[in-house]
User: Fold this.
Amino acid sequence: MKVERVSYDVMTPSAARGILEAIYWKPSIKWVVDRIHVLKSVRFDNIRRNEVSVKVPANKVGTAMKNGKGNLGIYVEDVRQQRAAMVLRDVDYIIEARFEYTSNEDRNDGKHLDIFKRRVAKGQCFHRPYLGCREFAAAFAPVEGDIPTSEIVGEIDLGWMLHDINYKAGMTPEFFRPVMQNGIIECRNGGMSA
Assistant:
């Protein structure tokens, strides 16, 4: 929504891709999310957050860089706003994904998979993955054995949801209408442009 933040019922495929890229990113590969397993029931919490209503203008930053000085401060007391947010709580997902090559360089499936698995096992990431907003950090770990069964039973239509952003088409959002079957969301059918 425009002012108040409201989460989708589950993580989006683009959020899942963002988590994978935070763990292991290379220019020669791109992550493709095939399935998201939602292991726990969907639950929401209402929270209030303090935000500021303005940003430092880019031209002021450029001027300050050029001159070597300038006032780039924001006085929080003057521009603070309290916003409500409806966010997911106590989530547990398994992401099924694969990578595709973006070029003819560095095409070694085993190498990329081994590096990814090693980084996940050690908890390594280039930056802390998050769900939606940076303050909602995501923890990650390898899946040991078979994929656990979800608490969610039956079919749930999740409505229209963001699938991904198409950067080649000028950052066009692409949407899809997933139906969760026993906690599993198929993400392969792609999105429709807005």
Q: What stands out?
A: The chain has two domains: 5-43+89-193, 48-85. The mean pLDDT is 91.
